[in-house]
Amino acid sequence: MSVLVTGGAGYIGSHVARILQQSGTNVVVVDDLSTGLDSRVLGLPTSHLELSTQGATSTLEALMTEHKVSAVVHLAALKQVGESVNKPEQYFLKNLGGQANLLTAMRNTGVKKLVFSSSAASYGVPDVDLVSEDQTPNPINPYGQTKLIGEWMASNAETAWGLSHVSLRYFNVAGAGWDDLADTQKLNLIPIVFAALKAGSKPKVFGNDYQTPDGSCIRDYVHVMDLAKAHVAALKYLDTDTRAHNVFNVGTGRGSSVVEVMDQIKTTTGIDFEYEMAPKRAGDPPSLIADVRRINNEMNWKSENGLAEIVESAWKAIS
Ligand SMILES: NC(=O)c1ccc[n+]([C@@H]2O[C@H](COP(=O)([O-])OP(=O)(O)OC[C@H]3O[C@@H](n4cnc5c(N)ncnc54)[C@H](O)[C@@H]3O)[C@@H](O)[C@H]2O)c1
User: Fold this and answer.
1) R_g over Cα of the chain
2) Could you give the 3-state DSSP secondary structure of residue 249?
């Protein structure tokens, strides 16, 4: 079996590519290196292709044929919520145009298995704390919209030409499975706090009067290594005949508040830093925790790591 991993030079994609490679699967990477790093995919066949460009379909078809690709894990996407509000056209063009080219190439070459990187951003601001896949999705920004439409594109391909697909809705991904695959962007809480500590500045906590035990937001942090293993489970699941669902949450089913994350970072780093309270941000739900019963039951996948392992591995990888 050979698996094409789009976005394989990215933070999550490189973990997926490496875990597949280590389990004996042939891996081919497609990544335009807009945020990815070549150093994460040394030794893997890699095409520096931007998926939404004209001609991308034929390049993909040639790659799929040459490497006898039988399944695709599609992670390549722009993922900055704020940027997506300011440049919605870019997000629709690159995320959805890229996916349209990818699906066309898969259809033309008969590659019928897809695992798609979706996001808890598909849910928007749900009115429940524990979010199941049955919650009606209602994304509140262009980024989240591209993820939900990406799921629909996969479902339409199933109807039209028999694509088998799974969309994984990741919650808050953090940690590192290997030190050279650290999350080097400063977009999520843990890397942002580490960057502030390295710069000698105070990290910010946005909001302290949410209806939560310590007043700060609660999120479900999933270790990137556990998430990578969920992709392996999803690929296996696509080989089974008794599939009941296409959409799965990936999280731990447990929440940690921003203050608890700060406390864990203090414990792990040994740095007794202070943080600054800042006003709430628009669109931040008080609590967002994945209901993970579906993926637990149907794919037999469970997260193995908690917040301590996440923070420790992330800190080790950047130290
Ligand atoms: N990090 C998270 O917490 C999180 C949460 C939910 C969903 N996701 C999704 O997971 C996927 C991977 O995220 P990540 O955190 O690893 O981000 P990342 O930016 O590290 O990885 C994305 C990779 O895709 C590549 N890429 C982007 N657009 C491309 C295009 N048009 N053509 C070819 N390559 C392109 C980038 O160079 C990069 O290597 C994304 O689809 C993202 O939406 C991430």
Assistant:
1) 19
2) strand
At 116-158, the pLDDT tens digits run 999 999 999 999 989 999 999 999 999 999 999 999 999 999 9
Pocket test for ligand 1, best of 34, 180, 189, 220 (most atoms within 8 A of CB): 34
Give CA–CA dist 86/64, Å, rounded. Answer: 35
Q: 3-class SS at 89?
A: helix
Longest dimension (CA), the chain: 57
248 in Cβ contact with 298 (< 8 Å):
yes
208 CA from centroid of ligand 1 (Å): 30
CB distance 77 to ligand 1 below 6 Å: yes
Span 35-58, average pLDDT: 98
Average pLDDT, integer, range 213-218: 96
Distance 290 CA to ligand 1 centre (A): 20
Domains in the chain, ordered, with CATH? 2-173+221-250 (3.40.50.720), 176-220+252-318 (3.90.25.10)
99 close to ligand 1 (CB < 6 Angstrom): no
Q: In this predicted structure, what is the pLDDT of residue 241?
A: 86
pLDDT computed for residue 283 by the predictor? 85
Tokens found for residue 23: 């389990």
Q: Which residues are catalytic?
A: 143
* Cβ neighbours around 132 below 10 Å, total: 14
Q: How far apart are CA 31 and CA 48, in angstroms?
A: 5
CA of 82 to the centre of ligand 1 (A): 15
For ligand 1, the distance from its centroid to the CA atom of residue 40, given in whole angstroms, is 14
Give residue-wise pLDDT tens across range 282-318: 888 899 999 999 999 999 999 999 999 999 999 999 9
From 117, 171, 178, 250, the mutation candidate for ligand 1 (largest count of ligand atoms within 8 A of CB) is 117
Mean per-residue pLDDT, 75-94: 97
- pTM score, whole prediction: 0.98
